[in-house]
Structures are given as C-alpha cells and as structure tokens.
Amino acid sequence: MSYAPMGGLxxxxxxxxxxxTAADDAxxxxxxxCKQLGAIVRTSIGxxxxxxxxxxxxxxxFVTSDAATIVRELEVVHPAAKLLVMxxxxxxxxxxxxxxxxxxxxxxxxxxxxxxxxxxxxxxxIIQGYGRAAAFAMTELEAMSIKSVTDPADREQVAVALRSAxxxxxxxxxxxxxxxxAEACVSVLPKNQxxxxxxxxxxxxxxxxxxxxxxxxxxxxxxxxxxxTIKHLKNAKIAxxxxxxxxxxxxxxxxxxxxxxxxxxxxxxxxxxALEKRIKDIANTGANVIVGxxxxxxxxxxxxxxxxxxxxxxxxxDLRRIARTTGAVVLAKLVPPSPEEIGACDSVxxxxxxxxxxxxxxxxxxxxxxATIIVRASTENLLDDVERAIDDAVNVYKNLTxxxxxxxxxxxxEMELARLLYKYAETLPxxxxxxxxxxxxxxxxxxxxxxxxxxxxxxxxxxxxxAVHADGDxxxxxxxxxxxxxxxxxxxxxxxxxxxLMAIRLTTDAxxxxxxxxxxxxxxxxxxxxxxxxxxGDYNDETAA
Length: 545
Known about the structure:
The chain has 545 residues and is α+β, with helices and mostly antiparallel strands. The protein contains 15 helices and 18 strands. Strands 5, 6, 7, 8, 9, 10, 11, 12 and 13 form a nine-stranded mixed β-sheet that branches. Strands 4-14-17 form a three-stranded antiparallel β-sheet. The protein has a two-stranded antiparallel sheet with strand order 1-18.
C-alpha cells in the first residue's frame, strides 16, 4: 500500500497545529474575541460600574471593577485579544488610569471594523481610515485642554486632578481619598518634580475601622510589633543589616572535640562573648535601633542589655523602603556601621491601630523620601480595592508632574472628539470617511457606557448630549448621580490629557495590528491534556484509552 503525503501547510507543521486563513475568516474570529473581552469590561467602567468576581488559578478571589485587575486575573489566552490586553497593561503601567477605556474603545473599534468589512471595505482601507482618525483626534485633543495644574505641590489643585481616577473605582469616597493621596505625593515630591517615583508612596492595610479613619504617615509603616521590650524612641539612630543578627555561623561544617564540661562552658562563653562584643560595638557607634531579617535569642538578650530596639524586617523590599526613609545603608555583615551608614529618624515606635500593632518610622520634622497611607477597612477585598485606587491615583500624579494639562471628564471629551470626527469625515472624498465615522461612533461608546451603568436611558441621554455638543457646549458630560447630563468643568470632573492621548494611541495601534492579521498558526502545546481550542471557543473531547 503506497503512502501519499499530505499537501499544503499541514505538511510543513507538526501534528496538532491549528491553522486559520483569511478564507476561514481569521479576521472575523479575532474581531469576535475582542468583542467578547470588551463585553466583560464595558459594564465595569465609570463610577457606577459593576464589580466582577474573579477567582484566579491560585484560588484567590478578586471582587473589583478595576479593568486592569480583571483582564490580568482572567489570564486571556486568545492571541488577538491578548494584544488588546497588552495595550491595557501598558496604559495601566504608564498612566495608571484609562485601562477600561482602552479595552472598551478597542473592542468597539473591532466591532465597527466587522461592519465595514461586511460593507465591502478592505482591511487596508479600514486601517488607513483609523490611522487618519487617530491622528486627527490627538491633534484636536491637544487643543481641548481647558485647565492646568499650575503647581504640582499644591494639594488642592492636585486633589481635583486625582478625583476622576479614584471615583471610577470608589465612587463617593473620591474627595477623601484624593486628599490623602495628594498629601502623600506632595510630601515626597523632590525638587526636580519630573523625578517623582511611585515607589515613594506606599500603602499599609489595617483591618477594622472605616475608610474615613485612614491617614497619611511621613515615613514607613510595618504591620507588626518590635522584637524586644523597648517600644518607643525619639531621635533614633538606625543600623540596618541583611544578615541575621545572631552568633556567626561557619561557612563549612566542622567538628569540635570537647573533653570536659569546663571546656564546653568555655566554648559557649566564647561564642557569647564574641556576639556581645559585636552588639556592644554597634551600640558604641550611637545606634539605638537595629533592623534585620532575623534575631537570635542570645542577640536579643544583649540588644536589651545595651538599651537598643530590635525590629525584624524579613522582606528585602521593606528593608529598602526603611533605608530610603531613614537614609541608612544596609550592611551585609554584622559589623559596626560608620557614621555615614547610620540612618536617622525623628521617632520610631509601636502604635496600636484598632487591634493591630504597627511599627512606625516617622520623619515629621524633616523631609521624608517615603510616605505611607494607612488604609482602614472592614474586609480584605475592600482593602485591596482601595489599594488599587490609590495606586492608580499615584500613577496619575506621576504623569501630572510631567504634563499638567487637563481635559473634561464624564465622557465630554469623547463626545466632542466624535462630533469633530464626524465633521472631518464629511470633508473627505475617499473611502476613509466610512472608517473615520466608525471611529467616531466607537468614541461615543464611552459616554454611552457611563449612561448605561448609571441606570439611565442611554439612547435618550446620548441624543441630548449630541444636541448640546452640536450647539457648541463642549464641556457637557454624563451625570452618573442623576442619570442626566452636566457641565464637567463646573463639577470639577477632569481627566489627564496625557492619559487620553496615550489611550487613543495605544488602542489604535493594537486594533490596526490585529486587523493586519490574515492567518493564525498555533502550535500544539507540549505535554499534558489537550488545551482549550481558543479559536473555536470550545474544548476538544478526549477519549480515554
């Protein structure tokens, strides 16, 4: 019996490879995957966005409306949808706000591209039209800035700029939290404002109490007690170590032959004397606080004898933050620090917050390089959600130190850009006008989502918004409290101009990249059960032998 080899691409690739061509609607499959991802996120954007309950592969539960957390914990595996997720992750990393905008806007652009393809347009024509629309939108957006933060060190101005980023996740608490974040960020703002680092603002989560009892500390906070009996010190001098504060261990194994109890006692005494000498030498430098990852019982005994405080910090990241707070140099060996290596702190002490003992390094009288926001809440999920909101607001402040321009929020900017794009499309004689109009329609989807998520009549509200923008009122947006419209500038609802610019650029790049795909080739994963068929959207049946 003769063997006839298979022809085509299947003959080139190993068994189990998935292959979808343009003839099999590869583009339409990618569009459908992005639409499904957008359908998950669109109900979560805006101040009244719904929460998603996600359990990741490690069994950790997430209840949040933060788009960045949702798409990260969903672990999207479809290659086309993953490109949109990567754009959202870049937006979250660079700006901190606008991830929901990227996913929702991108999914709507893909959905509108499907309609254009059915109309007969080629993907190359759609890509060209989307590119022209994005360039026009970003140019117009530059001219739409209506306010600037004149001084990034002014807490009141900064708090106004941060409100929208926090309100999109914790509506109703944006004024309080924006004030906290503004206080924390301004307190650690360096003289060269463009050198602000998000690492300088930390969050300490303490169970119990209400969110209104949260506060800001200039310095670092550890959620545990100190090791010894000394709990409070003023004008602390701090020695920090990455090694264990204990008797020195030999690098190699050795055997000691002892012939009597006296030799055994002398041997132990020599170890104790050596350890005591190290602790005494450290105390003689003026240091009265020792920070290290671990303390032995004998070392604690001598630390107490010389009236020093012992603070255990097992995390190397916490060690680094305390070093930044106090100016100490972290030493790798248990040796006396030099005067330049000793850190200084106005006060170090244990404070009981609720029923939790916290060790706090305060720098009240001098400028601190670290500020910590102590967040209080009743549940772990709420604490995590507040931490995410604060993290986004701190990232927004980082961008604010580089570009202080603001535009109207509440969907007003998107509605005005859509109006301008419709007007621009009418001036073009080419087929690009169809793509530009669909680009404008995708921008209108953002205020529509705000209206839908706030429980109003989205169609009626969108018609009203279009009418007022056509009359020249470019500052009108969606009033999520009353399910109506409002003047965003009068309500102090602003978004960062740089966040909008980056979101439009990232989304357009991701969408045009996906639309350029006309073939999908996916190799079979090595080992284990057969993976989920991502293009077909179902699971392959396996027959047990």
